[in-house]
Amino acid sequence: MIANDEALGVHAAKNYIYYIGTSNYPWTGGVSTNVSWRNLSLSVNTAFSLGAKISNHVSAVSAYGDIFRTSPNLIANANYDLSGFVGMEVNYAQNGEQIALPFRSDFEILFYNKDLFDAAGVEYPTNDMTWEQYKEKALALTDTANEIYGTHYHTWLSTAVNYTVADGVNTLVDGNYDDLAYFYQLIQDLEDAGACMAYPEIQAAGLHYSGAFGNGNIAMMPMGYWYVATLITNIANGSYNVKNWGLAAMPTKEDVQAGATFGNLTGACINKASSQPDLAWDYIAWLCGEEGSKVTAETGNRPAWVSEGVAEVMSSVEGFPADEGSKAALLPTFVAIEIPGTALSSQISSILGEEHSAIMTREISIEEGIENMNERVGELMNQ
């Protein structure tokens, strides 16, 4: 909950920190809800738990429609700088109006084991690496005799092929999935070379990505930024074999800007029923901007705002890699949303998940799976 200390003011870090979580009021979800303070409400995508209590009155940002209806020119009048959101703000725009601002973003990033790179004499990943260069490194790092894998893919569709949306054009709800074929072929080539564990093997073992990388025999792993906290904690308590690690921006195709990635977003918006929309806007403007984002970073969460100042706070956490490349990886150039919110998103996600599993287990070919995706989603969209 927000600490109800109005005397501290709307920008007080104490009030804010108690909202997003401390050791006494920990996050267990990573989303927000209609928690009110001085008639201010923050609303995002699902429920989270505060101890044993589950917050209610939860709504998606999109459910609010014209969030700024009571003061339609708030953002325009404030001349609010949206550049730090590196494209994420478009996911909260409707009919040409900005209905919310990005608050948090756990984007996809590349984790790597420095010790395995050093042992193999392979240069560390860079923040402008292409997928073909990534593949070359994965193959060079692989040592099948000693069960050293060049890379690792968790079973989710997102960690396997969602990188296609990093171009800012493709999405997972556009009905055409031909662009996924490149990434499926990349994974199957790596599997065939023994450079990563095969999908059926991971499924059968019930292997979680955190333990897989923690074992110390995986050189690279694409995963969401949230894994940083787990990695630091488990290295500190001695439960992981991996010791020296780093971060790099996700590789990109040659026609996509370096540093582009995708992620999940949490937004902050003003409740239409608010009796003090100007005060609410004052808070949200601070919360989502540079200064509020630094406070978010201090609590161990990844803010949506991207800047050198925010990266400095994030990289100052004890256990974070000391190299400049890892710090620079905290500055994505563009972040696409994993799957846009539409009326059909849930059904589309189910279809893609089914075909993804069939492709990855090789029950069907990549071509057959892509064709099925196109046909099934097309039928759904035409209903």
Write the layout of secondary structure elements.
Blueprint: H1 13-20, E1 35-37, E2 40-42, E3 49-50, E4 53-54, H2 74-78, E5 93-94, E6 97-98, E7 101-113, H3 114-120, H4 131-141, H5 157-161, H6 181-192, H7 199-205, H8 209-214, E8 220-224, H9 227-236, E9 245-248, E10 260-268, H10 277-288, H11 290-298, H12 308-315, H13 324-328, E11 334-337, H14 345-360, H15 366-381
Parallel strand pairs: 10-11
Antiparallel strand pairs: 1-2, 3-4, 5-6, 7-8, 7-9, 7-10
Structure, described:
This protein is of the alpha+beta class and 383 residues long. It has two domains: 6-103 and 270-335, no CATH class; 106-260 and 339-381, 3-Layer(aba) Sandwich (D-Maltodextrin-Binding Protein, domain 2), CATH 3.40.190.10. It has 15 helices and eleven strands. It has helices spanning 13-20, 74-78, 114-120, 131-141, 157-161, 181-192, 199-205, 209-214, 227-236, 277-288, 290-298, 308-315, 324-328, 345-360, 366-381, and strands at residues 35-37, 40-42, 49-50, 53-54, 93-94, 97-98, 101-113, 220-224, 245-248, 260-268, 334-337. The strands form four sheets. Strands 7, 8, 9, 10 and 11 form a five-stranded mixed beta sheet that branches. Strands 1-2 form a two-stranded antiparallel sheet. The protein is globular and about 65 Å long. It starts with 12 loop residues before the first helix and ends with a helix.
Brief synopsis:
The chain is α+β, with helices and mostly antiparallel strands and 383 residues long. It has helices at 13-20, 74-78, 114-120, 131-141, 157-161, 181-192, 199-205, 209-214, 227-236, 277-288, 290-298, 308-315, 324-328, 345-360, 366-381, and strands at 35-37, 40-42, 49-50, 53-54, 93-94, 97-98, 101-113, 220-224, 245-248, 260-268, 334-337. Residues 1-8 and 13-72 have low confidence and may be disordered.
